[in-house]
Design brief:
The protein has a domain of 149 residues: ABC-type transport auxiliary lipoprotein component (Rossmann fold). It has 6 helices and 6 strands; from the N terminus they run αβββαααβββαα. A hairpin with a 5-residue loop joins strand 5 and strand 6. The longest helix is centred in the N-terminal third of the chain and has 18 residues. The N terminus is likely disordered.
Length: 216
């Protein structure tokens, strides 16, 4: 029995070594003259899904729209964007590429287009090991030239390993709950940290700074 438990533990540890860990630095690129071509407005296009989880796009898109806004770029509401796309016969993300960036830019009245693809969105549970993995790829394209201005590809992964009864129960709970939102935010925040702020960006107030009137 002890030999069996030891073998199981070694197997689990081996799987952790194979599966665990987050991606290191964020893979990204930015055109050298981005500042001179800084877009004022960006359309957040429907999110393409490369995973089997149908909830992945809806988990990402509202967060992305909010992030683009606080980065200092004008962005039209996604419902308005989708309505204009629908009028052109585009009913889902997979059809977006039926129009060129130039055509989309004219249709949506923006300077740039943000394409998003969810690459990973899954939970793994194996005996006493559980993990959640979320990954996404972002591409910002100039609506006039169609050139890619910026892109980023990132994923995060968190693992739980149960070596006793309580931690095994925690790992199971972790897998069952499948709370993806925090990991979507981590992927998005890390990726968008590599995108320069837009022309409307306003830095958040520093904690403890005095406001007009002597308040805080």
């Amino acid at each position: 029995m002890k030999q069996f438990k030891k073998a199981c533990l070694l197997f689990i540890l081996g799987m952790v070594a194979l599966l665990a860990g987050c991606a290191g630095g964020v893979q990204h690129s930015l055109v050298p003259d981005y500042k001179s071509r800084l877009p004022r407005s960006i359309a957040v296009l429907p999110v393409l899904n490369e995973t089997v989880n149908l909830k992945a796009p809806e988990a990402f898109r509202p967060l992305i729209h909010h992030k683009v806004s606080i980065k200092g770029y004008e962005t039209t509401g996604t419902s308005i964007t989708d309505k204009r796309l629908f009028e052109k016969g585009i009913h889902e993300a997979g059809q977006v590429n039926s129009l060129t960036p130039q055509e989309l830019g004219k249709l949506l009245g923006v300077d740039a287009l943000l394409y998003t693809t969810v690459t990973e969105f899954s939970t793994t549970y194996l005996v006493a090991y559980a993990s959640i993995t979320v990954g996404a790829r972002f591409e910002l394209k100039d609506a006039k030239t169609g050139e890619k201005l910026w892109d980023s590809d990132h994923r995060v992964k968190e693992s739980k390993l149960g070596l006793d009864q309580k931690s095994m129960e925690d790992a199971l709970k972790f897998a069952v709950l499948q709370s993806y939102a925090p990991y979507c935010e981590k992927v998005m925040n890390a990726s968008f940290a590599t995108l320069p702020n837009g022309p409307l960006y306003t830095a958040p107030p520093q904690a403890g700074c005095l406001m007009p009137g002597g308040g805080k």
